[in-house]
Amino acid sequence: MTKLFEQAIHDIPQDVRERVSLNFDIIDQISAILQRKGMTQRDLANLMGKRESEISKWMRGTHNFTLSTISAIQKALGEKIIDTPLNFSKAKK
């Protein structure tokens, strides 16, 4: 890496790094579910009443996912994208 690039990476605040990392974790989970179900981004768009271009934007990592959006995606896919400790303990019962 160039020194300029290294400095730019170093200057990114930790909270921004963590948010971007979480965003990509969500995208990876959505992608895995779509692949497992043999679905495309177009299929997800149709289920959600969205344009495919909007889903594509989400999947590029430029979208800031809200809880509302995550909930709508989970409903459309019929699967959890994010497991919280409470979700996990309910599933074990």
UniProtKB/TrEMBL annotation:
In alphabetical order, the GO MF annotations are: DNA binding
Q: Read off the Gene3D superfamilies from this record.
A: lambda repressor-like DNA-binding domains
HTH cro/C1-type domain: residues covered: 30-88
PROSITE patterns documented for this protein: HTH_CROC1
- Tell me the SUPFAM superfamilies matching this sequence: lambda repressor-like DNA-binding domains (SSF47413)
Q: Which InterPro entries match?
A: Cro/C1-type_HTH, Lambda_DNA-bd_dom_sf
Q: State what protein this is by name.
A: Helix-turn-helix protein
What organism is listed for this UniProt entry?
A: Chitinophaga japonensis
Q: What is the lineage of its organism?
A: Bacteria, Pseudomonadati, Bacteroidota, Chitinophagia, Chitinophagales
